Amino acid sequence: MKTVLVTLAPGFEEIETITVVDILRRAGARVTLAATVTGVLEGSRGIKVAPDEMLEAVMDKEFDLICLPGGQPGTDNLKNDPRIEKLLQKMQSQGKYIAAICAAPTILLKAGILKDRSMTCHPSVQSQFDAYFDKRVMIDGKVITSQSPGTAMEFALKLVEILFGIERMKKVNAGVLARI
Questions:
Q1: Residue 30 pairs with which residues in a beta bridge?
Q2: Residue range 154-163: average pLDDT?
Q3: DSSP letters of 63-113?
Q4: Could you read off the pLDDT of 42-82 as tens digits, one per residue?
Q5: Taking the C-alpha atoms of 37, 42, 48 and 50 in order, what is their torsion angle to the nearest 10 degrees?
Q6: Which one of 26, 47, 67, 177 is most buried, counting C-beta atoms within 10 A?
Q7: Residue 108 or residue 180, greater confidence
Q8: pTM exceeding the 0.85 threshold for the entire prediction
Q9: Element (H, E) at 16
Q10: DSSP 39-62
Q11: Is the pLDDT of residue 180 over 90?
């Protein structure tokens, strides 16, 4: 079974978070939504989500992929949490997949994950990057980035394809009918 960690901080972008969790679970991944703070968290649009675990409880667990949703102030909350950088560096050193969408690639930049890598992100933060490409979803080695809530479905389906293969991705998409 493939395992995925999706981080959750106050002010997370709801579409980017829930779409990824939903599509990966449809594919058969064991997805853990881990929060930086206790209790139900409120997203950037006021939607409240209860996490599966606290971030501290998953620090020593193994995952095939970590995904960071964007949103504000969610991105800044993740960026300012030293546990996130620790998890990212652990995943990178183990050769695992790292995914970020919208403004969340700025977290990868801070953690040193994007060194010598091409990426995409939300246009509002693109000036922070040297190797930015205006693509909806971008893969460079084990790092997958995407632009915005509007690209969340493509991003999530690409994560399914990476973890499970194109046939599983097509099977999941047969149920949701995304244009890919």
A1: 3
A2: 98
A3: -SEEEE---TTHHHHHHT-HHHHHHHHHHHHTT-EEEEETTTHHHHHHTTT
A4: 999 999 999 999 999 999 999 999 999 999 999 999 999 99
A5: -10
A6: 67
A7: 108
A8: yes
A9: helix 14-27
A10: SPEE-TTS-EE--SEEHHHHTTS-
A11: no
- Residue positions counted in the chain: 180
At 72, give phi and psi (nearest 5°). Answer: -130, 135
Q: Which of 102, 104, 137, 156 is catalytic?
A: 102
Q: Which domains does the chain have, with CATH numbers?
A: 3-176 (3.40.50.880)
pLDDT at 165: 98
Query: What is the rounded distance in angstroms from the CA atom of residue 134 to the CA atom of residue 138?
Result: 9
Please list the residues that pair with 68 across neighbouring strands.
Answer: 100
Q: For residues 104 and 53, what is the distance between their CA atoms, to the nearest angstrom?
A: 21
